[in-house]
Amino acid sequence: MLDCDVCVTGAGIIGLSIALELHRRGARVTVLERGTALREASQAAAGMLAAKDPENPVELTALSQLSIARYTEFLVEIERLGGRPVPFQTSLTLQALEGNAFLESTGFPEGFSSGKLRFQQLSEWSLDPRQLAPAIRAAVEATPIRLLEDTAVQTVGESKDGVAVQTNAGEIRADRIVHAMGAWSNAPVKPRKGQMLAVKMPHGVPIDFVVRTPEIYVVPRLHGPRAGQVVIGATVEDAGFSTTTDAASLASLRAMAAEFLPVLADEDACPVLDQWAGLRPFTPDYLPLMGWADGSRRKLIATGHYRNGMLLAPGTAKVVADLLEGKESVVDLSAFSPSRFLEEQSKID
Ligand SMILES: Cc1cc2nc3c(=O)[nH]c(=O)nc-3n(C[C@H](O)[C@H](O)[C@H](O)COP(=O)(O)OP(=O)(O)OC[C@H]3O[C@@H](n4cnc5c(N)ncnc54)[C@H](O)[C@@H]3O)c2cc1C
C-alpha cells in the first residue's frame, strides 16, 4: 500500500509550490523536510521577481515569463487556502545597464543618484519572502498535504510499485518522487552563500522602488510586518554550508548601495535592523535541473534555481506537475536536463 502518489523532498518554496500544484490537481502528496519548512534559502531571499534582469541566462526567459504570468494566481490561491494575503511590495526596478555612460536622471525618483552608471526603469514586482513563507505554510496546512518536518531523506530505492524513501523517521512509499532539496541536492548542485542586511527606511526619503546593479540590489519593504525596512544584498560566496555574516561584507554592501541612494550611508538615519545569510542552490551553468532523473520516470528533479527561485517557483510547479501527469512541458526543458552533468557527476561520485 502506497503512502502517497507523490513524495516531494525538501520544503522550500520550490518543494511546497510543487506540492500545492499537485494537490490542486488531485494528487495525494507527502513532503519530507529535514528541518523546518521554509527556513533556508526561501526565507533568506530578497524577493525580487527579476524576470527582466539582464544578468539572467537567456535560457531562463520562457520559464521566467511562465512564472510571472502565473504569479498573481499563485498568490491568490495561497490566500484562498490559508487566509494570508501576500502583496507585491514594489513594481518598479531601476536596473543598471552595461557600460558606464552617464544617463540623465531626469524622471528618476527623489533621492536616487545614477552615479556613473546608466539605469533603465523596468516594470517588475518584488515581494517579502518572510511574508510569503508563513502564507505558504498556512496554505499547505489547510490541505491534506502531509508535511513531515524533522524528517531527513537518507536513501531512495525502487519498490515493486514505485519508490521507497528511507528517512530518519521510517520509510515512505510513493508512486513517484520529486527532489527539491535546494543547495543540499546531490552534485553538481553546490551552495552559494549570500549575505544581506536590512536597514531602517530613512525618514522623509521614501524608497518605493528596487535598485539593481550587477554587484548589489536595494529592495524596500512597503507592506506587512517589515514595512519601513530596506534590504541591501547580496554577497556571492563559495563558503560551503556556512551561513555566518561578517561586518566587512555587510559594510561593503551598504557602501555600494549608497552610491545610488546616498542617504543609505547615514547610519543614524538608517540603522541596521537585521542581517542574515542564505544558501543559493548553484549549478555550474547557472541553470536549474528540471526533468526526469531516470528512465523509469519515477524520479523527477526540480532544483538549482540559484538566484531566481522565488521568481521561478510557480512556473516550476506547473512544469513539474505537467510532467508527472504525462504531459509535455510548456517550456523547453532541454537546457535544464538533469543528465547534462552526468559525466561530471560520475567523476564526483
Ligand atoms: C541572499 C539571497 C537572496 C536571494 N534573492 C532572491 C531574489 O530576490 N529573487 C529570487 O527569485 N530568488 C532569490 N534567491 C534565491 C532563492 O532564495 C532560491 O533560489 C530558492 O529559495 C530556492 O528554493 P528551494 O526550495 O530550492 O531551496 P530551499 O529554500 O533551500 O529549500 C530546500 C529545503 O530542502 C531541505 N532539505 C535538504 N536536505 C534534505 C533532506 N535530506 N531531506 C529532506 N529535506 C531536505 C532543506 O532543509 C530546505 O528546507 C536568493 C537567495 C539568497 C540566498
TrEMBL record:
Signal peptide: none
Listed GO MF terms: oxidoreductase activity
Domain FAD dependent oxidoreductase: 5-323
A Gene Ontology term for the protein's cellular component: cytoplasm
Keywords: Oxidoreductase
InterPro entries (UniProt xref): FAD-dep_OxRdtase (IPR006076), FAD/NAD-bd_sf (IPR036188)
PANTHER family attached to this UniProt entry: GLYCINE OXIDASE, SARCOSINE DEHYDROGENASE-RELATED
Protein name (database record): Glycine oxidase
Organism: Granulicella pectinivorans
